[in-house]
Amino acid sequence: MRIQLTINGESKEADVEPRLLLVHLIRENLLLTGTHIGCDTTSCGACTVLLDGRPVKSCTVFAVQANGRTVSTVEGLEQNGVLHAVQEGFTKEHGLQCGFCTPGMMMTSVALLERNAAPTELQIRQAISGNLCRCTGYVNIVKAIQYASTKMREAKAEKQPATAGRA
Amino acid sequence: MAVEIGGIGHSVGRKEDARFIRGRGNYVDDVKLPGMVYLDIVRSPYAHARILKIDASKALAIPGVLAVITGKDLVPLKLEWMPTLMGDKQMVLPTDTVMYQAQEVAAVVATERYIAADGVAAVEVEYEPLPVVVDPIKALLPDAPVIREDREQKNNHIWHWEVGDKSGTDKAFSASDVVVKQDIYIPRIVVASIETCGMVAKFDKVEGHLTVWMTTQAPHAIRTVIALVAGHLGLSEQKIRVISPDIGGGFGGKVPVYPGYVLAIGASVLTGLPVKWIEDRSENIQADSFARDYHITAELAAKKDGTMKALRVKTIADHGAFDAAANPSKFPAGLFGIVTGSYPFEKAFVEVDGVYTNKPPGGIAYRCSFRVTEAAFAIERLVDILALELKRDPADLRMQNFIPPQAFPYMSTLGWEYDSGNYAGALKLAMDKIGYAALRKEQAEKRSRGELMGIGISSFTEIVGAGPSKHFDILGIKMFDSAEIRVHPTGKAMVRLGVKSQGQGHETTFAQIVAEELGLPVGDIKVEEGDTDTAPYGLGTYASRSTPVAGAATAMAARKIREKGRLIAAHLLEASPDDIEWKDYKYQVKGVPAKSKTMAEVAFAAYTNHPQGMEAGLEAVDYYDPPNLTFPFGSYICVVDIDRGTGEVKVRRFYAVDDCGTIINPMIVEGQIHGGLTMGLAPALYEEISYDKDGNIQGGTFMDYLLPTSMETPSWETGKTTTPSPHHPIGAKGVGESATVGAPAAIANAVVDALAHLGVRHIDIPITPWKVQKILKEKGVAE
């Protein structure tokens, strides 16, 4: 089947078997290997990407289901050489060790902060509860997301008065 | 400790993060080569069965399936068996009998990943089921089915190992006032690193050159093993290159050689094509090396006043169908002899018997040094049981018995020389920080209201950093490790090591050691590991040995460079080498601080203006053989609340005081402790691999093998004391595994403490809600 999707802002076409999983399309066909595979039961979240802005486990979505839709992966987080606040938070707060769960964990975090700019610790823990990490014990991942939340809200606050001033 | 160079003691940001946060890591499954084909594995549904027939015709009829490999195909290559680290052998593929569920039966090679999986489904295997034994105690009975008919010895006993003074211990027990005894089962678990295992093997038929990208914690040892096992096929060690790229967590699970690796290499040799094998999570849980599975009976003898006198421990170790434990050669039960823990027992006797069962092979560590968690759990549980018996506060009883700081170096009754320690200091700090006295008060109040709250302590001593070559080897290769440092003309350095990071942050911490020793900024130092073509030989990263052994090698290599640099500095400063001292991270003429040279200036001179008669260049290599192991320690205090309705245990607080000697990077050390604590929580409350009587695995996927998520994991609180190792060049002891070793006992002790007034003395881990609720019902306190 021929499909078209927009991935990290770029339009891509592919001819795929109906059974091809989205994660394999991303990794094998589009060569975006930042999205990882950690299990076969939709449990670990290492393969989390955003599908039309919502986090999905791409091991449990067929590539054909992404036809005509927008996919965001870890490779699209950095924009014009500037890290996303979530990426910055993960490194500043030591929210990663082996790095394998990190892309999925960060994509879940990005989606959380999009819908809730100031989550509580419990809300953060609930949001990432479908992403398993074996190295960090989650404490610093929570801090990383809190760092990003603060930074994103500060950036927004700085931007708004400036806009108002010009108007 | 100069902040500006990022030397030892600074929370320098991790160099490796730059690629990981951008999705630019390079893990084995990210390796994609032109013409690469895929290998997938047919596995046994039975725990014990004779293979009557393997029919590959339907699989071979699938377009894209290139080959189906069975055990019989491996016989002419003499590859159907491979040696294990413990002197046993393990099937690569069976020729007639399978011995555990999920054992490899055949391999399918195909042009695509999905077609390989189709091929696996199409291979038809006829089995004749055989009697199964999954319980090692039953496996020792005279009428038990013999699992390993290939052995001369016709029973399931593998080995007996003992240490200590048996008769002296028995006498001490007879003479003691109090004896406590407990059966403790430490269940089978798997490390389940988020990246599973895999390999890309590429054999060049023309050059005879084999390159493998492999999830391995020990690339050099693997290269030698390949040469030894497959040398008769023409694989020669200088033509074997093992690359361990970024590794998504190891924890011991990436030490062994699994059949899948051998099959991937074999398939590449046979087809002449690059072959990729990546296991699924279910395969990883069901077939890769397990950890623990120790059936322990432990006894402690004491005086009425609480003085601990003697320890007696008997263990049945379930090793599955092949003895493929990852232990140093001379230690079939690893370092289980650390079971005397933090206490000065006068006498001790420990015996362990290894047993075959119809379960997967293994006996790896699960983020701990060889069998150290089993030991720490047994002694720390037993001390609490003694406290209950004597009606003593468990903290108070520990304080009374600890090996005192002035006793170090301390020779334990089982023969280990503990390098340094201050056990009472660590426990006191933990008690102060968590508010122990107030918690006990709160507990008494709650208990009077019928609420269940418990406080558990674990004051563990670890034994890591294997090891001194006089005692430690793997397959005869001594357990040294290595570092090579090259300082380039512009004062930048390349460091290569024989160990291999799997997330521990070696690229940062080893650069910090070099920064500290050479006065070069940490950003100017590149650390590279995991390529056997470039790195010096070493035994790899496991058992918390990287910092104790390779970290020491790094410091020693740097000091060799510093010594050569001193001669160059003398030449540049026109002074006698005897008048040159290393001070404030540079060479100075003694007493004349104005006359000095930096390492960068010396490095430039080493290539442009070195003294006549001296070799040019500035590099050094060190193969470090540690004089002793290191003995990190800590005291943990855990507070739990138990739901009387559901039986659920909630860890409310957990304060961990660790002492790993000199700390290189406090941020990384804290991160290691957080992770270790979570892997201590996991077996205490959640994780277990069990089998039904037919050998069917219970909990073989992430749906039912329960890793702690962010919801169960508490906000760990950490503190530290610092007691440097006297024999390590920078005083460091290693930290990656301490918390995994220490935490389970603290949690189990807390749960038992919450229920002790009801007469509960012990609950085997994992302490699931079901187990607790059963107890609550029995005691009539369930809501």
Fold topology:
The complex is a heterodimer of chains A (167) and B (783).
Chain A (H helix, E strand, L loop, with lengths): L1 E6 L2 E6 L6 H8 L18 E4 L2 E4 L12 E3 L12 H8 L9 H14 L5 H7 L11 H28 L1
Parallel strand pairs in A: 1-5
Antiparallel strand pairs in A: 1-2, 3-4, 3-5
Helix pairs in contact in A: 2-5
Chain B lengths: L16 H4 L16 E7 L5 E7 L1 H4 L4 E6 H4 L6 E3 L5 E3 L5 E2 L5 E7 L2 H10 L1 E6 L6 H4 L17 E8 L1 H10 L2 E12 L8 E7 L4 E6 L4 H12 L9 E4 L15 H13 L3 E4 L2 H7 L2 E13 L5 E11 L28 E9 L6 E3 L7 H19 L3 H8 L8 E2 L5 E2 L4 H12 L1 H13 L3 E10 L11 E2 L2 E2 L2 E7 L5 E5 L8 H13 L6 E5 L16 H28 L6 E4 L2 E4 L2 E6 L1 H10 L10 E6 L8 E10 L6 E11 L6 H21 L3 E2 L5 E2 L18 E4 L17 H18 L13 H10 L5
Parallel strand pairs in B: 1-14, 12-13, 15-18, 16-17, 25-26, 32-35
Antiparallel strand pairs in B: 1-7, 2-6, 2-8, 3-7, 4-5, 9-17, 10-15, 11-12, 11-14, 15-16, 19-20, 21-31, 22-23, 24-25, 24-30, 27-28, 28-29, 31-32, 33-34
Helix pairs in contact in B: 10-18, 14-15, 15-16, 17-18
Describe the structure.
The complex is a heterodimer of chains A (167) and B (783). Chain A is of the alpha+beta class. In chain A, 39% of the residues lie in helices and 14% in strands. Chain A has 5 helices and 5 strands. In chain B, strands 3-7-1-14-11-12-13 form a 7-stranded mixed sheet, sandwiched between helices. In chain B, strands 9, 10, 15, 16, 17 and 18 form a 6-stranded mixed sheet that branches. With 783 residues, chain B is α+β, with helices and mostly antiparallel strands. Chain B folds into 3 domains: 17-24 and 481-624, 2-Layer Sandwich (Aldehyde Oxidoreductase, domain 4), CATH 3.30.365; 32-130 and 197-278, Aldehyde oxidase/xanthine dehydrogenase, a/b hammerhead (Aldehyde Oxidoreductase, domain 3, Alpha-Beta Complex); 290-466 and 628-778, Aldehyde Oxidoreductase, domain 4, CATH 3.30.365.10. Chain B is globular and about 85 Å long. Chains A and B meet through α1, α2, α3, α4 and α5 of A and α1 and α17 of B.
